[in-house]
Amino acid sequence: MGIILNFGAKVQNIFVTIVMIRKKVVPLQTVKHKRNSGMKESENRIISLPKISDVRGNLSIIEQLKHVPFEIRRVYWIYDVPGGFDRGGHAYKESEEFIVALSGSFDVELDDGHQKQTYQLNRSYKGLYVAKAMWRRMTNFSTNSLALVLASTDYDPDDYIMDYQDFQLWLKGQKMLTDNVNNTSATVINNVQVPNAVSYAKSVFDSSLYELNKMHDVEGNLTFIYQNIHVPFEINRVFYSYDIPGGEERGGHAHKECHQFIIAASGSFEVVLDDGTNKRTVALNRPFWGLHVPPGIWSSEQGFSSGSICLVLASHAYSEDDYIRNYDEFLDYIKK
Asked: For the chain, what is the radius of gyration of the CA atoms?
């Protein structure tokens, strides 16, 4: 069956009223990791991420080549997985991945062809690095689980091995029994740059809201983003805010050079944009919608519903010099 995905649908000048979506957050348990001496700990491993906590909630950061040992080429997230269903069941020849349970919990089963190992993910500030050439399966999804995955390569159907017997033969350097193309759905991707993206914003209307793809099947939904295609920049950093108390606001700053792409991965909230003259409020309440905020715009997030997760893809690594945190200084900066 052919699947045609349409990306980058732009919604101009959106003024919408936020829809408050209250979502149950599953209590998280201690990370458990079943060790097996046959697996190489130097490859697959749990990595602790920064967790910045204050009265506004928590924030965790993932920078390429700093918190994960690869450059980020592709980001996707899996959500609405029905109870009893699994995800994955394949291997990559070259791609490395980093998997985080942004909410809820699930297990990741890894198999190198000789030994199997299971990692339980249930903390937003811990992730699993998965080396290439590993058979992987995600299972035991709790209610309202949300899995974030960062990948080291662009999408390539030839990088997938979809049959376990083929995987074992490939590990031995033998010819696989099946043609990988016949084991995957034909996927047509519109590889067009995000339209009308600006390098520096002069108006709040230079920020654009985009509808992303939603790949839906009985195993749940998946939305993905490729750098320089679905976002108009290279993805150097990913961060997300969570455990946000009701009534709190996040953000409240501008960037000099950094582009951001903001997604309500769970729940809903409003993004308030300010160019020094005009203000614009955009509601985000779907995990397949994203807001591009170019540098030069003062932005903040407010009106968080229960269990909200604000996911942000950024064009630059963290640098305090890129931030403008004082509004009067922002007004002086944009006059230059």
From this structure: 20
